[in-house]
Amino acid sequence: MLLYHKGKLSPEPERVSLVETIHTNEQKIRLALLQMDIAIGEPATNARKVEEMLSRAIQAEKKPDIIVLPEMWNTGYALDRIHELADPDGKQTAELLSEFARKHGVQIVGGSIAERIGDKVKNTIYGFDRNGVNHLSYSKIHLFRLMDEHLALTPGESRGMFDIDGIPAGAIICYDIRFPELTRRLALEGAQMLFVPAEWPHPRLHHWRTLLMARAIENQMIVVACNRVGESKGTSFFGHSMVIDPWGNVLAEGGEEEEIVYAEVDLGEVAQVRRTIPVFEDRRPGLYD
Ligand SMILES: NC(=O)CCC(=O)C(=O)O
Fold first, then answer.
1. For ligand 1, atom 3: residue with the closest CA
2. What are the residue ranges spanned by the domains of the chain?
C-alpha cells in the first residue's frame, strides 16, 4: 500500500486514503500513564517505583490495555555519569517490563531509558506486547541541547513505527514533538496513535500542551503523552500527562504531582475524524515535500 509518495507537482492532488485501511467501528482502549517522579542517578530506586506503580495501575477497576511510562525513567538526566548508569543493552529494563507485561497480559510502552550499547548511550523506548514480546525499540532522534543531551547521548537513526494490539502506532520522545514532519511521516505510514514519553519542564507548559494538541489535530490521531513530575538539578518538571483524541479534545490530563492518569479512547474516532475532514486525501505533496 503506497501511503507516501515523493512525486512531481501535478495538476491533481495525490489521493491517498488512510480511512479505507483503518478501523471504522468503535474500539475502546484503556490507558494508564505513570506520571512519576524520578530519582536522579538511582536506577534501582526508580525500578522499584515503576514496579509499584505498574502494580497499582493493573489493579484499576477497569484493567488498562496499555501502560505508558515517562522519558529516561531509569536514570533521569544524570548525564555526567550516564555511561556508568545506563542499562547495558536495555536488559534490566526488558526483564522488568517484559515479565510484567506477560504476567498481566498488558501492553507496555516503556517510556524511555538510558541504554548503553557498546560505548554509546541512547535514549530509547522499549515496548512489550501482552505476551511480553518486545515490539518497539526507538531511540530519540532529536537530542535536546538545552538539557545537554547532545553532549552525552547518541541519537537514533530510525523512526518508531510499531503495532499495538493490531493498531498501527508511532512513538517519539519529548523534544521530538517540536518536529511536526516526524509525526506526519508516522501518520502517513499509518499510525493512528502516537506515544510520547517526556521529561518536559517549566516554564514551557504552554508549548507542551499546544504542540501535543496540534500533533493530534493535524494528524487526526490519538496522542498519549506521559511526562514526569518532581525537581531535578533546579529544574521543575510539571507532569500534565495528556491523552488527546483525534479531534483535539483533551480526554485526560494529570496535575503536577505524582499520579497515575487513566483514560479511555475510542479508536473508531480516528476514521470518523479523517472522513469528516479528509486532510490526508487533500494533501499536495508535490508542492511541499
Ligand atoms: N527532554 C526533552 O526533550 C525536553 C524537551 C523540552 O523541554 C522542550 O521544550 O522541547
1. 175
2. 27-277
Which 8-state DSSP code applies to residue 209?
H
Query: Predicted ipTM?
Result: 0.99
CATH superfamily of 27-277: Carbon-nitrogen hydrolase (3.60.110.10)
Q: What is the pLDDT along the chain (289 residues), one digit of tens a residue?
A: 223 232 333 333 344 455 544 545 789 999 999 999 999 999 999 999 999 999 999 999 989 999 999 999 999 999 999 999 999 999 999 999 999 999 999 999 999 999 999 999 999 999 999 999 999 999 999 999 999 999 999 999 999 999 999 999 999 999 999 999 999 999 999 999 999 999 999 999 999 999 999 999 999 999 999 999 999 999 999 999 999 999 999 999 999 999 999 999 999 999 999 999 999 999 999 999 7
Is any atom of ligand 1 closer than 6 Å to the C-beta of 178? yes
Task: Give the helix/strand (H/E) hosting 255.
Answer: none
Spatial neighbors of 89 by CB under 8 A, at least 6 apart, are: 115, 116, 117
Give yes or no for residue 53 CB within 6 A of ligand 1.
no
To test the pocket of ligand 1, the residue of 113, 123, 124, 175 to mutate (highest count of ligand atoms within 8 Å of its CB) is 175
- CA 283–ligand 1 middle distance (angstroms): 29
Q: How many CB atoms lie within 10 A of CB 29?
A: 19
- Say how many C-beta atoms besides its own lie within 10 A of residue 232's C-beta: 19
pTM of the model: 0.92
d(CA 216, CA 248): 6
